[in-house]
Amino acid sequence: MPGPMEGVMNPLFCRTAAALELLPVMVTPFLRISVDVPRRNKIIKWLEPLAIPGKPLVIQLMGDDPANLAAAARILYDYGVREFNLNFACPSGQVVRSGAGGALLKNPALMRSITAALRHELPDIALSVKLRCGFADPRETDDIIPAFDGLVDYMAVHFRTVSEGYRSVSGGLERLRRAVALSPVPVIGNGDIETPEDARRMLETTGCAGVMCARGLLRDPYLLRRLGGMESPEISPGRDLFFRTALAIAAAEPEVYWSRPRLLELARFVYGSDSTQFRELVGIRNFQPEHFAGFR
Ligand SMILES: Cc1cc2nc3c(=O)[nH]c(=O)nc-3n(C[C@H](O)[C@H](O)[C@H](O)COP(=O)(O)O)c2cc1C
Questions:
Q1: Where residue 48 sits, what CATH number does that domain have?
Q2: With a threshold of 0.85, does the pTM exceed it?
Q3: Which of 10, 92, 124, 272 is most buried, taking the most CB atoms under 10 A from its CB?
Q4: Is 180 found in the same domain as 41?
Q5: For the segment 172-206, what is each residue's pLDDT rounded down to a tens digit?
Q6: Binding site membership of 213 for ligand 1 (Cβ less than 6 Å)
Q7: Which three-class secondary structure state does DSSP give residue 213?
Q8: CA–CA dist 229, 237 (Å, integer)
Q9: Does residue 198 sit in the same domain as residue 249?
Q10: pLDDT digit string (tens) for 62-88?
Q11: Whether the CB of 130 sits within 6 Å of ligand 1
Q12: Cβ burial, residue 129 (10 Å; 0-12/13-18/19+)
């Protein structure tokens, strides 16, 4: 599965992924539901450009109010969405301070109430959660995993704690193995998968049922195809193909997709900020759609 990435998985990313058939399923970045439930039109306007035609769609919701989250899920359900994921993982300071995302890992009872609210509102949906192994300590896994008994179809687990942010950690796979041992439902392992070998190691070491890749998907946009045994270019030409396709799509429909900051951000994620490709792009004076029209 692709790991959701707020700020990266924007409409242009999704159009590009669709054109190159990069994703077997689309998992949206979080839709934050706080004090007020957004109106239907606003939710649908956010969702439509993120859906990938012909692919299953999982909507990720984030918030700490069970009733509001269930109400937002109902709006999406009435629109046709049948699969939801709840974000109990986001480490962003702003989100954590507001009590949502990864902050909820400190409160298994509230995570359970939120998950139960969706399950009871919409009994026939596929429902999953996205977790980290703990807020401050991976031993919290032992209290977190049982919170979802009888409520979810699977769990995606990132092996870092919220406090660890994105720092490198040792023993990540052992943490996941613990989560797998505790979970009555399949666990999708997440964290630092950049190659098929990384994925194989995670599956074999932890017993998890599948893998979720986020940043690795930017470094190697064909990673999920590669993992699925599908024909794929090598990493470097694959990156070029991905970025050039995104540029071409943006240049062809500038009113919808063209945004210099977003394109540079995408290039930074795909190539890295130290790369010659990124520096060249930053240096282009005439960074206008016309300059890239027909560019492949
Ligand atoms: C820029 C960025 C945005 C992210 N946004 C989300 C998000 O919206 N929802 C979520 O559950 N995880 C989000 N994540 C976390 C990833 O899905 C993933 O769990 C994490 O990056 C670890 O996996 P990786 O090592 O394969 O990148 C984000 C990560 C990054 C780098």
A1: 3.20.20.70
A2: yes
A3: 10
A4: yes
A5: 999 999 999 999 999 999 999 999 999 999 999 99
A6: yes
A7: strand
A8: 18
A9: no
A10: 999 999 999 999 999 999 999 999 999
A11: yes
A12: buried
